Every structure is written in structure tokens, then in C-alpha cells.
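Private note to self, pasted from the team thread so I don't lose it. C-alpha cells:
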């Protein structure tokens, strides 16, 4: 643990000192430590949720579900590392008769990159903050973590960090394996420190790009996994009342402050959009996370409402209290596809808050090209179509365009409510992320690993995961001597 008075170099030194001892911990010991953290968070749930409600304005049910997601995410990672498949351990036996020249004994495994700096997010004070997915993935990989707390929930960050650090210490993990810093300048200086070997971030495109550039400009550049902006377009071949009501519910949940909020809904030009106003009027006002986000939303809302050719379906409202906090209700406008193209500067930027744009189109054949032109990188893209349309292949080109530009393609659902599971992909091409990887699900561990091969190494000097006796019991793939003579036989 640390506070704002701690010298950044000391934080980096503590993390660096912990790197090798932590990497050497067995998967079972590290998994038990992650479960201990999960148990500690659950034990302090009431306290943490009370603080989070006060600092963020998010509701108790929302935060209760998010904290549950956070603790069970840690347990999922624990099982994943005990399983050991994430190490991708490969063993090639020495083979003097190898067809392209004698092969030495080669053994490759994924090893921790070293200390990771995680910039916490504002909109998920548990799941993407101090003990969230990036922290869990880095710890699971065997990397010490320094979290840069978000200024939007400082008290919650400090208390969560105390609980996490205490649980890791009680589980016997090395000192320095988890630390917290605060302050923008401290975060920048630590990102520049040579002892930090990877960065993670969830937040705005502007800030994420600045940090990514800093990481790339270091004398020794490091990988930086930034989750930035995404507008998550939805394409519908029909627009009945039920679909439009579900759209409003998805775009306004948590006041639209979700990275997977559907920012655009494409519907046929003759669709009756009158249910939008009724659905929007039924949504109670919700506080935005902090005054800065409120000001930014106010500006985006004004730009969208003022865009030429935009028809207001639900104007919504925005009020400011004496503390500078803003409270919003949903705003929805409609444009045609031609207007969206002509006024992309006003309309295409992410609106972080309860605001979305409905786009009318005349011919579904236009959609694949329009998508690739307007939405080059997204966390999600979604298709709503009737069963016959999904089965007859008419949407093949659209789905191909969505898959080429999105991390997750949904059918018949809504992108909010990201499931934490081994098969999840929460990432996407730029500008959705700086590096197209996943920050949700067990595949996220691999961001903080690097491949190392050992050639003709004695058993005593090999990592446990590559030894013949395999003391960790992890899966190992083998390439036996003589197998090269069979290459290509399975492709015939």
C-alpha cells in the first residue's frame, strides 16, 4: 500500500523486487490468494457498496451486482491458473533426424512480463477499478500490480486496496505484489519508469491515447492495453415496440455510462419510432458519475441536438445541483444515413451518458459498406433480424463486416451486461482499444505474459511447468522425435 506522498520510484522498486518471487509461486498458491481476495471483498461488501454509492451516484442494486461480478471473476481466474492451460507449455524432444536439420531439446512456456500499472476506471468502481479485471488478470499471470486510483472514487479505492493488500499478505504472497498510487502525475511518472513492464487502462479515447503514446515513447517501449471509446452500433431489419423499448433500456442503464452502451441503432426507414418517447419518459433521472463527466456529456448532448438534419425523438433533460453534479434522462435523436455521413463530426463521437442516435436506412444492402466506413473499431456490434433472415444468408456480408471491426458480435440481444467467462472477447480494433486484446474473461491473462523458450536446459534449471516430472501438473504438449516425417499427412 502507498499514498500520494510515497515516491514513485519506491513504488516501482517494491514492485520490481516482488516480480521474481511472485512469478515463482505455484498456480495453486496464487489461485488460493485470488480466492482469499474474493472472500475478503465479499466480507466487506456492505461497507464498500455504501462508499461506492456516495462517491459515484450508482445504485445499490447495480453496485451489488458489480461487486459480485468482481469477486467471482477472481475465483474464475483462480481456477484458470490452477488448470494451467494458459501457460501453453510446449516440449519438443531432441531429434537428430528432424527433417530440416537436427533439432535440440526445446521447451517453451508463457512467463509473467513483470510489474503492471493499471489505471482504474470511473464507471465500474469495482469491476474495472482497484480489484477489477485488469488487476485480477495481472495477478493471475504472476505479475505485481500497481493501481493508479481514479479520482472519481478515492475513498473507495483506498479501502478496496487495503482489503486486497491485506488478503494477499495473509495468503503469503510477496511484499510489494500489490500497491496503490493516486494522482495524475504519479501515474504518468510510473508509466515512464523502466521497472514497469506493461500498462492497462479503461477510460476516454483522449486520455488513453496520451498514455499509450507515453508507453510507446519510452526508451524501452512497453505494451499498453487501453480500452477507449466505442459506440457499439446495432443493426435491425425490423423495429417493433418491444425492440425499441429494449433499446432505450440498454442505452439508458446506469445513465448510459457503460462502454458497451448501444450508441447507434439502424432501422428501416419506414419504422414507427413513436415508442421511443414513451419508453424514454419512463426512465427516472440518474446522476452522472462526477462533474467532469457531466460537463462532457452536456457538451456532447448539445452538439447532437444541434446537428443539422437530426429529429428529436426524446429530448431528455439535464440538471445541475449545487455541487456541480448533473442528473440526466435519456436523449434520443433520429437521422437518415445520408445525414450521418454528412455530419459525422457532430454525430459519430461517443456520447458517454444516456444519449443515442437512431439511423434510418432504405436498403439493407448499404449497411456493410456504411459500417466499415463509419465504425472502424468497436467493442461490440449487434444484429436484430427475424429467424428467416438469419437463416437465408442474406446478412452474411453485414456479419462479416461486423466481425472485421468488432470484438464481439451479438445476435438478438443487447451489448450491455458483459458476461465474465472464458470465451468472452471484450476488446476490438482501434479506436475501441489501443491493442486488440480482451480485458474480460480468462483470455485476458495472456496480455501479461511473454513466451520464453529453453534450449537443451538441464531439468534442474527449467521452470516447473516445463520439467519432465511436471510438479505443477499443468498441461504439456509434446512433439516427439521422428514426428516430422509425418508432416502434411493429415492435410491429404
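Design output:
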Amino acid at each position: 500500500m502507498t499514498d500520494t506522498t510515497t515516491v514513485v520510484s519506491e513504488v516501482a522498486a517494491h514492485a520490481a523486487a516482488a516480480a521474481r518471487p511472485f512469478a515463482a509461486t505455484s498456480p495453486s498458491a496464487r489461485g488460493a490468494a485470488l480466492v482469499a481476495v474474493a472472500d475478503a471483498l465479499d466480507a466487506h461488501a456492505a461497507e464498500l457498496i455504501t462508499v461506492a454509492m456516495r462517491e459515484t451516484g450508482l445504485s445499490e442494486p447495480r453496485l451489488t451486482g458489480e461487486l459480485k461480478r468482481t469477486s467471482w471473476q477472481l475465483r474464475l481466474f483462480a481456477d484458470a491458473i490452477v488448470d494451467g492451460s494458459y501457460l501453453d507449455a510446449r516440449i519438443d524432444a531432441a531429434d537428430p533426424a528432424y527433417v530440416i536439420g537436427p533439432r535440440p531439446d526445446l521447451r517453451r512456456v508463457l512467463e509473467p512480463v513483470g510489474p503492471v500499472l493499471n489505471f482504474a476506471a470511473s464507471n465500474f468502481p469495482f469491476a474495472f477499478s482497484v480489484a477489477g479485471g485488469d488487476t485480477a488478470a495481472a495477478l493471475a499471470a504472476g505479475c505485481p500490480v500497481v493501481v493508479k486510483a481514479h479520482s472519481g472514487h478515492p475513498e473507495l479505492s483506498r479501502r478496496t486496496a487495503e482489503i486486497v493488500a491485506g488478503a494477499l499478505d495473509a495468503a503469503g504472497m510477496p511484499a510489494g505484489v500489490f500497491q496503490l498510487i493516486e494522482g495524475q502525475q504519479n501515474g504518468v511518472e510510473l508509466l515512464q519508469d523502466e521497472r514497469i513492464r506493461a500498462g492497462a487502462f479503461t477510460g476516454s479515447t483522449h486520455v488513453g491515447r496520451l498514455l499509450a503514446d507515453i508507453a510507446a515513447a519510452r526508451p524501452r517501449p512497453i505494451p499498453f492495453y487501453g480500452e477507449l471509446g466505442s459506440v457499439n452500433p446495432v443493426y435491425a431489419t425490423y423495429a417493433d415496440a418491444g425492440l425499441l423499448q429494449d433499446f432505450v433500456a440498454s442505452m439508458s442503464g446506469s445513465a448510459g455510462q457503460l462502454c458497451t452502451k448501444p450508441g447507434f441503432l439502424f432501422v428501416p426507414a419506414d419504422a414507427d419510432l413513436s415508442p421511443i418517447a414513451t419508453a424514454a419518459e419512463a426512465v427516472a433521472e440518474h446522476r452522472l458519475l462526477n462533474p467532469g463527466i457531466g460537463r462532457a456529456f452536456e457538451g456532447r448532448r448539445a452538439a447532437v441536438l444541434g446537428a443539422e438534419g437530426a429529429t428529436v425523438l426524446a429530448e431528455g433533460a439535464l440538471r445541475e445541483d449545487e455541487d456541480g453534479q448533473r442528473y440526466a434522462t435519456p436523449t434520443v435523436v433520429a437521422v437518415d444515413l445520408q445525414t450521418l455521413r454528412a455530419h459525422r463530426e457532430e454525430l459519430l463521437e461517443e456520447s458517454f451518458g444516456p444519449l443515442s442516435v437512431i439511423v434510418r436506412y432504405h436498403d439493407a444492402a448499404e449497411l456493410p459498406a456504411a459500417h466499415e466506413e463509419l465504425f472502424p473499431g468497436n467493442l461490440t456490434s449487434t444484429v436484430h433480424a427475424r429467424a428467416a433472415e438469419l437463416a437465408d444468408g442474406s446478412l452474411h456480408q453485414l456479419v462479416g463486416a461486423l466481425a472485421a471491426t468488432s470484438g464481439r458480435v451479438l445476435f438478438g440481444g443487447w451489448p450491455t451486461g458483459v458476461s465474465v467467462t472464458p470465451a468472452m472477447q471484450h476488446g476490438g480494433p482501434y479506436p475501441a482499444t489501443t491493442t486488440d486484446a480482451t480485458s474480460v474473461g480468462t483470455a485476458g491473462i495472456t496480455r501479461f505474459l511473454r513466451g520464453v523458450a529453453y534450449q537443451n536446459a538441464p531439468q534442474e534449471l527449467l521452470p516447473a511447468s516445463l520439467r519432465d516430472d511436471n510438479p505443477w501438473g499443468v498441461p504439456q504438449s509434446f512433439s516427439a522425435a521422428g514426428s516430422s516425417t509425418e508432416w502434411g499427412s493429415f492435410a491429404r
